[in-house]
């Protein structure tokens, strides 16, 4: 498992430090996106700044993407295999459960291309569907 995580980091040109491996392992084990606060709770003895920098490094290198689900703090989820975080190709819908507050990536549901006026250049887009997840309705 550690070798797989190291390889995943190396593929994205990220040096595999002990903390980065631990954070990647935590993200890999999550079904839902995770906030910095949630990650901090999982790593009680870790420095918040180190965790934040790790997430930012992952984001800058296309390993994770951030999600603004309207709760005031971004959440982070692993990018799907082959994702380049390209606004024209890789953007997908997210689902936020208003009961349990979990946010899920729905990579099979792509955000449709929006043709902006020529004087505008898009840099990011975010589509969050809010409702109740299957875990909370059942």
UniProtKB/TrEMBL annotation:
Keywords on record: Metal-binding, Zinc
Ranges annotated as spanning the membrane: none
Upper lineage: Bacteria, Pseudomonadati, Bacteroidota, Cytophagia, Cytophagales
GO biological-process terms attached to the record: negative regulation of DNA-templated transcription; regulation of secondary metabolite biosynthetic process
Domain of life, source organism: Bacteria
Names of required cofactors: Zn(2+)
Pfam families (UniProt xref): FUR (PF01475)
Gene Ontology MF terms: DNA-binding transcription factor activity; transcription cis-regulatory region binding; zinc ion binding
Listed name of the protein: Fe2+/Zn2+ uptake regulation protein
Free-text remark on how the cofactor is bound: Binds 1 zinc ion per subunit.
Coiled coil: none
Gene3D superfamilies named among the record's database cross-references: Winged helix-like DNA-binding domain superfamily/Winged helix DNA-binding domain
Origin species: Belliella baltica (strain DSM 15883 / CIP 108006 / LMG 21964 / BA134)
Sites where the protein binds Zn(2+): 97, 100, 133, 136
């Amino acid at each position: 498992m550690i070798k797989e995580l190291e390889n995943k980091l190396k593929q994205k040109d990220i040096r595999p430090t002990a903390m980065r491996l631990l954070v990647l392992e935590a993200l890999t084990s999550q079904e839902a996106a995770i906030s910095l606060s949630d990650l901090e709770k999982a790593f009680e003895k870790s420095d918040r700044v180190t965790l934040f920098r790790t997430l930012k490094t992952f984001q800058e290198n296309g390993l994770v993407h951030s999600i603004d689900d309207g709760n005031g703090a971004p959440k982070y989820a692993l990018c799907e295999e082959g994702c380049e975080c390209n606004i024209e190709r890789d953007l997908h819908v997210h689902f936020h459960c208003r009961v349990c507050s979990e946010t899920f990536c729905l990579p099979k549901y792509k955000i449709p291309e929006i043709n902006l006026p020529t004087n505008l250049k898009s840099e990011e887009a975010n589509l969050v569907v809010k409702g109740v997840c299957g875990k909370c309705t059942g």
